[in-house]
TrEMBL record:
Keyword set includes Nucleotide-binding: no
Family recorded in the similarity comment: Belongs to the glycosyl hydrolase 1 family.
Organism lineage string: Bacteria, Bacillati, Actinomycetota, Actinomycetes, Micromonosporales
Molecular function, one GO term: beta-glucosidase activity
Secretion signal, residue range per the UniProt entry: none
Record's GO cellular component terms: cytosol
EC number of the protein: 3.2.1.21
Catalytic activity of the protein: Hydrolysis of terminal, non-reducing beta-D-glucosyl residues with release of beta-D-glucose
Protein name from the UniProt record: Beta-glucosidase
InterPro entries reported for this sequence: GH, GH_1_N_CS, Glyco_hydro_1, Glyco_hydro_1_AS, Glyco_hydro_1_beta-glucosidase
Active site: E173, E365
Amino acid sequence: MSTLAAPETTTLRFPPGFWWGAATAAYQIEGSVDADGRTPSIWDTFAATPGAVAGGDTGAHAADHYRRWPGDVALMRSLGLGAYRFSVAWPRVRAAGGGLNARGLDFYDRLVDALCAAGIRPVATLYHWDLPQELEDRGGWRHRDTAACFAEYAAAAGARLGDRVQLWNTLNEPWCSAFLGYGAGVHAPGGASYADALRATHHLLLAHGLAAQALRRAHPAARVGVAVNAGTVRPVTASAADRDAARRIDGLLNRLFLDPLLRAAYPADVQADTAPWTDWSFVRDGDLATIAQPLDALGVNYYQPDLVGAGAGPERPYPTGGTVAFHPVPGPVTGMGWPVDPTGLTDMLVRITRDYGPLPLFVTENGAAYPDAVDGGRVADPERVDYLHRHLAAAHAAIGRGVDLRGYFVWSLLDNFEWAFGYAQRFGLVHVDYATQRRTAKDSARWYREVIAANGVPRP
């Protein structure tokens, strides 16, 4: 395992005040899905559907964070984390039938207080995919009213927690919510309509804008951002057809979200590409101005690039009519088979700064799953150490190219319920034995603690 005792000239130092953090999501770690007034979410329903999640797993117990949070905060402190990105579970905060569930808000109030006492900045995400099932039954993100309900929820969370939360993410990865949840059927709620996915995209973005306004009304000093799963899309060759295929996927993955958020407009080429599925009549006057609320920061979740070309390809998750082929990215892969290519992170951070202006950026998720196991009380995970090392060097390279990068959050603090993969994939810095809920810091956690202490990484 590497150390940071290298000479100054061989260490990549990050800017003073850089936020070193780790991230989690409520449904993935909390468990206690029916405790203290929490109502069902779309993920409770989806996970209970036979065949929807690997191994038939659900988030009913997860990492039991709802009951074990004091120990988890102590664990964060022992790792030297300066920030913790967590999500508030909307079904905990919304009471059955509507209104507020005070016990749900109380939980996050205690958590935020404990983080502050430990010297850890609270970074709160309001929506990490766990829509209350009652709202899905009324149309979910297909329905415009869900955005208004989200703003009411944001106002309540902001009024209760806004004096201590250092940064809000309204949404996490709205592309996943819309395209995997409503278009491809592989995430909750399991829909399979591209018309619904595109409608959900707009209503999610509208919810972001309304929530940003609500948070700032509740607490004028609120710092508001949103986290997108931005991915560098490259053509497999320089041919015009392959470059057009890359344009189409980049439009659906990146520009469909970044343009309305940062330019108050949907890309004309994406609207034309998606004409077989929708006429975009759900966009009303004033919506785009609402969506494009000023951002205090943009969160970038990065895992892998895409290599695409013209040709027969999968029908889902992108609405392309199966006319875009996805090619293997050369190089190593993670335990999930995802390509390891840190240059995609540098390129994406630089591209956002170049195309949309020098706004503050955070890497709000970055990490890798490997088949970790406890051996003699230790979890050796050299692949994850190498992955994080290389991606932090890539983030540093982006700073050197003029990117205003303010912080980095490892996904994830804990092994957890990894959505449709269930418990089969482990992303955590900390190993969780799901039978006993025992936590074991992996070698990568100790390595990251050294990184934080040094505010830098050895030059690869």
